[in-house]
Amino acid sequence: MNNQAEITTAINSIPWFFDLSQESINRLISIADVIALEPGQVIFSEGDQHPHFYVVLEGKVHLESFVPGRGSLPLFTAEALDVLGWSSLTPVVRQMSSTAIVTAPTKLLKFNAQTLMACCESDCELGFVIMRRLANIIASQLLTHRLHLLEIISCQK
Q1: Which CATH number fits the domain that encloses residue 43?
Q2: pTM for this one?
Protein backbone atom coordinates (compact mmCIF):
# COMPACT_ATOMS: atom_id res chain seq x y z
CA MET A 1 0.00 0.00 0.00
CA ASN A 2 1.17 3.47 -0.79
CA ASN A 3 1.85 6.25 1.58
CA GLN A 4 -1.25 8.26 2.52
CA ALA A 5 0.59 11.56 1.92
CA GLU A 6 1.34 10.57 -1.71
CA ILE A 7 -2.32 9.67 -2.33
CA THR A 8 -3.52 12.90 -0.69
CA THR A 9 -1.11 15.01 -2.76
CA ALA A 10 -2.17 13.22 -5.95
CA ILE A 11 -5.91 13.66 -5.35
CA ASN A 12 -5.49 17.31 -4.35
CA SER A 13 -3.60 17.99 -7.61
CA ILE A 14 -6.30 16.64 -9.95
CA PRO A 15 -8.63 19.33 -11.34
CA TRP A 16 -11.46 16.77 -11.52
CA PHE A 17 -11.69 16.93 -7.76
CA PHE A 18 -11.23 20.68 -7.13
CA ASP A 19 -14.98 21.28 -6.66
CA LEU A 20 -15.38 18.62 -3.98
CA SER A 21 -15.82 19.14 -0.25
CA GLN A 22 -13.09 17.95 2.11
CA GLU A 23 -15.40 15.11 3.18
CA SER A 24 -15.67 13.86 -0.42
CA ILE A 25 -11.89 14.26 -0.89
CA ASN A 26 -11.33 12.18 2.25
CA ARG A 27 -13.58 9.43 0.84
CA LEU A 28 -11.49 9.34 -2.33
CA ILE A 29 -8.24 9.26 -0.35
CA SER A 30 -9.50 6.30 1.67
CA ILE A 31 -10.22 4.18 -1.44
CA ALA A 32 -7.33 5.20 -3.72
CA ASP A 33 -3.93 3.70 -4.35
CA VAL A 34 -0.94 4.87 -6.39
CA ILE A 35 0.73 2.29 -8.62
CA ALA A 36 3.88 2.47 -10.74
CA LEU A 37 4.13 0.66 -14.07
CA GLU A 38 6.95 0.11 -16.53
CA PRO A 39 6.94 0.36 -20.34
CA GLY A 40 5.42 -2.67 -22.04
CA GLN A 41 2.98 -3.49 -19.27
CA VAL A 42 -0.62 -3.99 -20.42
CA ILE A 43 -3.08 -2.38 -18.02
CA PHE A 44 -6.16 -3.89 -19.66
CA SER A 45 -7.11 -5.45 -22.98
CA GLU A 46 -9.92 -4.58 -25.36
CA GLY A 47 -13.04 -6.63 -24.62
CA ASP A 48 -12.00 -7.50 -21.07
CA GLN A 49 -14.00 -6.55 -18.02
CA HIS A 50 -11.61 -4.65 -15.82
CA PRO A 51 -12.31 -3.72 -12.20
CA HIS A 52 -10.34 -0.47 -11.95
CA PHE A 53 -10.52 3.17 -12.94
CA TYR A 54 -7.31 5.21 -13.22
CA VAL A 55 -6.08 8.77 -13.40
CA VAL A 56 -2.64 9.14 -15.00
CA LEU A 57 -0.36 11.07 -12.65
CA GLU A 58 2.75 10.89 -14.82
CA GLY A 59 3.97 8.91 -17.80
CA LYS A 60 2.30 7.73 -21.00
CA VAL A 61 -0.18 5.00 -21.85
CA HIS A 62 -0.95 4.09 -25.45
CA LEU A 63 -4.55 3.11 -26.23
CA GLU A 64 -5.26 1.04 -29.30
CA SER A 65 -8.19 -0.84 -30.79
CA PHE A 66 -8.32 -3.84 -33.10
CA VAL A 67 -10.04 -3.24 -36.44
CA PRO A 68 -10.68 -6.37 -38.54
CA GLY A 69 -8.68 -6.21 -41.74
CA ARG A 70 -6.56 -3.35 -40.41
CA GLY A 71 -5.03 -4.70 -37.22
CA SER A 72 -4.45 -2.68 -34.08
CA LEU A 73 -4.89 1.03 -34.65
CA PRO A 74 -3.73 3.78 -32.28
CA LEU A 75 -6.53 5.73 -30.65
CA PHE A 76 -4.97 7.96 -28.05
CA THR A 77 -1.93 8.46 -25.84
CA ALA A 78 -2.96 9.14 -22.27
CA GLU A 79 -0.72 11.47 -20.29
CA ALA A 80 -0.88 13.27 -16.95
CA LEU A 81 -4.46 13.91 -15.76
CA ASP A 82 -6.07 11.72 -18.43
CA VAL A 83 -8.28 8.87 -17.25
CA LEU A 84 -8.26 5.19 -18.15
CA GLY A 85 -10.76 2.43 -17.56
CA TRP A 86 -13.84 4.64 -17.50
CA SER A 87 -15.93 1.75 -18.87
CA SER A 88 -15.61 0.08 -15.47
CA LEU A 89 -17.77 2.89 -14.03
CA THR A 90 -20.70 2.36 -16.40
CA PRO A 91 -23.67 0.45 -14.97
CA VAL A 92 -24.13 -2.12 -17.75
CA VAL A 93 -21.35 -2.20 -20.34
CA ARG A 94 -18.10 -2.69 -18.46
CA GLN A 95 -15.98 -4.06 -21.29
CA MET A 96 -12.87 -2.12 -22.15
CA SER A 97 -13.15 -0.42 -25.54
CA SER A 98 -9.39 -0.49 -26.14
CA THR A 99 -6.10 -2.01 -25.00
CA ALA A 100 -3.93 0.15 -22.72
CA ILE A 101 -0.15 -0.34 -22.95
CA VAL A 102 2.36 1.60 -20.85
CA THR A 103 4.94 3.35 -23.08
CA ALA A 104 6.95 5.28 -20.47
CA PRO A 105 7.47 4.84 -16.73
CA THR A 106 4.01 5.68 -15.40
CA LYS A 107 2.28 6.42 -12.10
CA LEU A 108 -1.46 5.95 -11.86
CA LEU A 109 -4.00 6.82 -9.22
CA LYS A 110 -6.06 3.62 -9.01
CA PHE A 111 -9.63 3.14 -7.77
CA ASN A 112 -11.64 -0.05 -7.52
CA ALA A 113 -14.60 0.82 -9.75
CA GLN A 114 -17.25 -0.85 -7.56
CA THR A 115 -15.96 0.88 -4.45
CA LEU A 116 -15.82 4.24 -6.24
CA MET A 117 -19.38 3.76 -7.53
CA ALA A 118 -20.59 2.89 -4.01
CA CYS A 119 -19.01 6.14 -2.76
CA CYS A 120 -20.69 8.06 -5.61
CA GLU A 121 -24.06 6.57 -4.68
CA SER A 122 -23.70 7.43 -0.99
CA ASP A 123 -22.20 10.91 -1.59
CA CYS A 124 -24.34 12.77 -4.14
CA GLU A 125 -21.85 15.62 -4.47
CA LEU A 126 -19.06 13.19 -5.33
CA GLY A 127 -21.30 11.17 -7.66
CA PHE A 128 -22.42 14.25 -9.56
CA VAL A 129 -18.88 15.57 -10.08
CA ILE A 130 -17.52 12.17 -11.17
CA MET A 131 -20.40 11.45 -13.56
CA ARG A 132 -20.34 14.96 -15.05
CA ARG A 133 -16.61 14.67 -15.73
CA LEU A 134 -17.05 11.13 -17.05
CA ALA A 135 -19.77 12.27 -19.48
CA ASN A 136 -17.34 14.85 -20.91
CA ILE A 137 -14.66 12.20 -21.38
CA ILE A 138 -17.03 9.79 -23.11
CA ALA A 139 -18.30 12.51 -25.44
CA SER A 140 -14.73 13.53 -26.29
CA GLN A 141 -13.65 9.97 -26.96
CA LEU A 142 -16.70 9.29 -29.15
CA LEU A 143 -15.74 12.31 -31.26
CA THR A 144 -12.15 11.05 -31.50
CA HIS A 145 -13.34 7.56 -32.52
CA ARG A 146 -15.65 9.09 -35.14
CA LEU A 147 -12.78 11.08 -36.64
CA HIS A 148 -10.60 7.94 -36.75
CA LEU A 149 -13.42 6.02 -38.44
CA LEU A 150 -13.87 8.77 -41.05
CA GLU A 151 -10.12 8.68 -41.70
CA ILE A 152 -10.20 4.90 -42.21
CA ILE A 153 -13.19 5.15 -44.55
CA SER A 154 -11.61 7.95 -46.59
CA CYS A 155 -8.40 5.92 -47.02
CA GLN A 156 -10.34 2.98 -48.49
CA LYS A 157 -11.61 5.01 -51.49
Answers
A1: 2.60.120.10
A2: 0.89
